[in-house]
Amino acid sequence: MTERRLSGVGATPLSGVGTAVWYAPDAELGSPPDPETIDADVERERFETARDAAREEIRAERERTAARLGEAEAEVFDAHVQFLDDPQITEGVEAAIDDGLPAEHAVDRTFEQFIEQFEGMEGRMAERADDLRDVRDRLVRALGGDERADLGSLPEGSVVLAERLTPSDTAQLDPERVAGFATVTGGRTSHAAIFARSLALPAIVGVGTALRNVADGTDVVVDGRDGTLLVDPDEETRGETAGEEAVEVRDGTVETADGAPIEVAANVGTEADLASAVERGADGIGLFRTEFLFLDRESPPGEDEQYETYREALETFPDGRVVVRTLDIGGDKPVAYLDLPDEENPFLGERGIRRSLGPDADLFETQLRALLRAAGEEAGGELSVMLPLVATVDEVRQARETVESVAADLESEGVSGALPEFGVMIETPATAFLADALVEHVDFFSIGTNDLVQYVMAAERGNDRVAALGDYRQPAVLRAIHTTVAAAQGTDVWVGMCGEMAGDPDVTELLVGLGLDELSMSAVAVPQVKRAVSETTVADARELAARALAASTKREVDCLLTGTTR
After folding, report:
1. Of these residues, 80, 105, 482, 498, which one is catalytic?
2. Rounded CA separation 566/487 (Å)
């Protein structure tokens, strides 16, 4: 057989080789019986029984996922319970039963309406369709008394191929047995991609309909770095991939081949993320997402609860740096107990520092009290605090004044505390353009490429239709990064990066050449990025960066990174 190459979106910087195993969930329902044979009361009772069974399954699955992957990943199942109890869904099912459908068909018809509605949306809202499919399939199985396919016991060396993988599908996969997966649909922010990164599993999503032509039992190579699925690879390719040893975990700061130290840290949000960061050799935490402390609860965490959480992070990295992002609420992160506005475009609305200096000022001060108390403890690493979604110098001044005011209050109360390093995220074009003015007010910049890309390119990061525009290899994005780093040169301000770009080992040399001091990423990528740093020389990296900054198209940048010609 001739080797074929299919392209999709790489979800993890890992590769695997194995045998294709097609996963198709339960078969579609057949035609419903004659409505006159349906007893609506019996069907409603069957539906309620199935809801109860599904609810218990989801709660059990949530607990398993939290223990295995972390609280952040497990929270997706909270939304599944909400769908089970959504009045629009339950009333829709009951109405369909009253129309003469059995419970299975009533569930299928009702959920399909909402699935189509979500798929018509853009970005992350469209991904809710897979959550609905997950809940629908669970209900239909419960109604039919069927067992779900056990993805946890696949033959060793399996590469799972599927139209799509729902959250509960992906959570079953065992990295000890599964060599990777590839799906027809999906993007980098889909649940399948997120779970793949947590599982350290080679994965490609969004391959398209060409994937359907790959038969069961076919030898395949999954390259999650460049999003390539090799079908019927030759023996040399199979051997190279199968023979790849796991990248060595390096403890301690890594240096370039010519001796320039680069800090390689991890992005975390939960206790499980902390453990993974340590296991993967992270030097510290480059992004502590504190919003996970505030989500999926009825009231905000108090000062003491936050203090204990920040102390745990500092104690986990006693010789490292822990960069904590203050509350980043709004946009795609709703909080039930806050009066968040209903905005037409929440990503351009009241979120991040805008809320901390406005309606959430009390929460902001409580968080700062906890952070300054944690910074004042002698044991543990160095605490740094950074502000999200900054757009003006005035916001930075006001926030810094608040920090100093909180420090004064703690001192007057006789409470131990200390002023931490103070910085801002560079994730709006405004801060990139104002970086030369901001250096007077901060100790560091951390470039958040996920948001910076979507704002620079006017391409929503969860929208697959504009994925090519929303790519961090776009020349305009590289120039925004360069502008930021150049503003800090010659000052005491250090510059880090905490977006997806930082975790891509294919662009590590470019980032070193652009002058980044620190790179922070999903823990799974830390070993690969550390290796890439150690294989880089600063002189070559600077030459690559200069050529990339002179490029006018993404294609030119891609060619530079791959060493190919146009």
Report:
1. 498
2. 32
Closest CA to 302 of 386, 352, 362, 356: 362
Pairing of strands 228-231, 219-223: antiparallel
In the annotation, is 191 catalytic? yes
Query: Rounded to whole angstroms, how far apart are CA atoms 224 and 142?
Result: 35
Least confident residue range of 1-10, 483-492, 522-531? 1-10
H/E stretch holding 273 reads: helix 271-279
Strands 518-521 and 261-268, bridge-based pairing: parallel
What is the spatial distance between Cα 224 and Cα 119, in angstroms, rounded to a whole number?
A: 25
Distance CA 416, CA 407 (A): 9
pLDDT at residue number 289: 92
Instruction: Please state the pTM of the whole predicted model.
Output: 0.77
Are the CB atoms for 137 and 177 separated by under 8 Å?
Answer: no
Q: Which of 105, 191, 482, 559 is catalytic?
A: 191
Cα torsion 496, 499, 504, 510: sign: negative
User: H or E stretch including 521?
Assistant: strand 518-521
Spell out the alpha helix ranges (H) of 69-159.
Answer: 71-74, 76-84, 87-98, 103-119, 124-144
User: Which of 70-84, 203-217, 274-288, 517-531 is least confident?
Assistant: 70-84
The sign one gets for the Cα dihedral 357, 359, 362, 368 is negative
Tokens 């060493």 map to which residue? 563
Question: Is 441 one of the catalytic residues?
Answer: no
Assigned token pair, 235: 């023996």
